[in-house]
Each structure stands twice: as C-alpha cells, then as structure tokens.
Amino acid sequence: MSMDVSDLIGDHADLTELHRYAGALLVHLTAEGTPPPRPPVDVPDYWLSPALHALARIMAGEDALEPLTRAAQLDGERTSLFLCLALAVCGHGDRIHASWLGTAFGDLSPDHPVTAGQRALWLAAARGAYGPAGKIFVLRKLDAVEVPPDQDPWLKALVPAEPGLVVPPSLADFPELAQIPALGVPVTAAARLARLRGRCEEITSVRQAPADARWPETEPVAVLRTLIGQGGPTEPLSSLTGHLLDDVQPGADPHLAALALHVAAPVVKAAAESLAASTLVDPPESITVPILGNAIVLRPDGPDAATLAEAERRVAARVPRRGMAFRGAYPLAGVGVVLMVLGVVVAWPFAVGGGAVCGWAWWLLWRRRQQERADAVTIEAELASLREVTQGAVWALHEYGREAKTLQERAQADLTAVTRLLRRGPRAG
Fold this sequence. Notes:
Elements: H1 6-9, H2 15-31, H3 48-59, H4 65-89, H5 98-105, H6 116-126, H7 131-143, H8 151-158, H9 181-204, H10 219-227, H11 240-247, H12 254-263, H13 265-279, E1 287-291, E2 294-299, E3 302-303, H14 305-316, H15 324-327, H16 329-345, H17 348-424
Antiparallel strand pairs: 1-2, 2-3
C-alpha cells in the first residue's frame, strides 16, 4: 500500500496543500462525519486529487461520476479503498458502490498475508459499516479460503486450557483420582465443551454496531492515513488463519469474532464432537490407586483382596527395630541377681549394687513394653486409616460412575447447542 509520489513533487507544488487538506478531511470525517470545504487545489495525474473531489461530491449528494472516472483511471484499487474506508468511518458506508468493495478488497490467499487494506475493510464490514450485503461479501471472501482442519489451535484460541486440574464433585475428597487419565479425561473434556458452548453463545449474541458508528484510531483510520501520505501501518505479517485465531480469543473484537467463528464453524464443530466423544467412556472396571503410599487395586465392588492384604502386611511390617539396650535388659537382670547373691554370702554392698542393676534392667524392659504398645496402637491406626480411605475411594468411584451418566448427557446437550449456534452464524444486520 505504500506509494511513491516523489515524482509529483517537482511538477505539482500543490501536492503539499493537497495532503494538508486530506489530513483535515480525515479529522472531520472521524470527528463530525462531514468533509471540510472542497479541495482548494487539483493535482493532475495523482489519484488522490480526483478521489477527494469525488468524496466531497458524494458527501454533498451530488454527481461524482467525472472525478470518480479520473481517479479510477489513475489508480482504481487505491481509489476504491479510500472511498470505502472514508465513507465507513463517517457512518455513510451505505453510499459505496458494490464494485468499489470488490476492487478494494481483492482476493485472499492462505499463502499470502492479509494486507492492511483488506483487514481494515474486514473490520468495517464486520461492524456493519456496509450493511448486510457488505458483511456477506466479506464472509464469502473468507469462506473461499480453506481453513486448516487442525482442531487444537481453535480450541486453544476459543477456550484456553484450564490452569489447574478439573475435579468433579464425586472426587472432591480424592482429587488425586482425577489425575488418572481414565477418570480425568472425560471430566476435562466435558468442562471444556461447556466452556466452548459459553464462548460460542457469547460470540453469536453480539449486537450489531449502529449504522452511523464511527471508529477511533483503529485499522480503517490508520489505513486512510497511509493512503493520504501521513504514514501508517506496514503490511500485516499475519496469515488469514492467524487473524481468525486472534479474532476468536477471549477479549477480541466481538464483531470480528462473529465472522471468524462462522468461517471456522466446520473445525469448531468437529472439535466439539471430539470433546463430546471423549466423555462417552465407561468408567474402568478397575484402577490402581496409591493410598497412603500403597498401590491398591479398586473395583466397583470393593478393593482387591490381594493388594489390600499386601498393603496391610507392609503397614504391619513397619514396626521399628529396637536398639541393643532393650536386648541387653535380660543379661543385666542376670548380673543383678548374681550381685544380690554375693551380697548375702560375701558383703551387703554387693546386694545393693545387684538391686540397682536389676532395677535398671526392669526399667529397660518396661520402657520396651510401653513402646511396643505404642507401636501396636500406631500400626492399628494406620491399618484402620488404610481401610477407611480405601473404602472411601471405592464409594467415590461409585459416585463417579453415577455422575458419568449425567456428565455424558450434559456434554451431548452442549454439543447440540454448539451445533445450533454455529449453524445460526453471525447476524446479518
């Protein structure tokens, strides 16, 4: 869209004045919807000069055939683009000729990036600047280009993945179960499908902008600045698909999103069907779950007896080994008895020492007995907790199985709604 007018400067001193008028024109169009007085100068052989005269006559309701013909002969594409955008930003897009829109827009190709002018017309038509016919025209241009069938980019754009694990109500007390693919995949798919339905409802319910709506400094105005030689955007580097993916992301322009969703409807419908199909999975007959550090196989009718017994054996085997002090209690007691006998036979101090040694041995044995009892209580508590948690997990699986039916029904309802919304398409008006 860049233009070289350096060859005109030497021949036409009025070129600067013409550009100054064009800048004032743009301010009037965006702020008031009316043009300033007609161009004070005329620059022959430069398309913008007759195009400005034509715009002034069109805005005044006069015949503009003569300047239109001259401008089109000099540069038909730029003339058409200028008139389409200028009339759009001031709320008079209904005054354009259908042939101008066709000439200005050109053709789209998946192998070439969308031009700044095409994007500006795309936005203007999406917001209803050219009425239903203009929107349909752009839709047909977009539909003529095949959209890649890969579903994942569209799902990422429409409904980005949840930041955390999706846990159904049935597994609220056992969120680790939702990490098992056989249980978590259907739940995640159903949640994403529900969000996809909500996003489609949001996009398709957008209200059309008023017919006289004007734009701030966005694509149409920026492209007009480029056309009149006041700088502006370089050619966009994004492809058609790249623009469409950007347009359907949350927070994007709702009018562009409506067109993009319509163009991508076949891919989005296929993605919704894939998500719904992911929910149509019966809960597994058995799963292996780590419970308190033990791998136990759970079935709908209860835990597997063999794996539960093995887990209980491992828990019971975790009795701590006692030190040498406990194993030396009995020899100490023997030494104490010998000393006590010597105290009776030889001298009483031996008896006192023997009593002390026997007391020490008795204390060691008493402490060992107390710790063994504490170990037994701890082990029994761990076994009870293991059985309780295992039984709770089994009941959670029962609840998950009942919840799965409701999940599948809701997913089918969401799929039906998404299909209906996609079939409805963007509002023409």
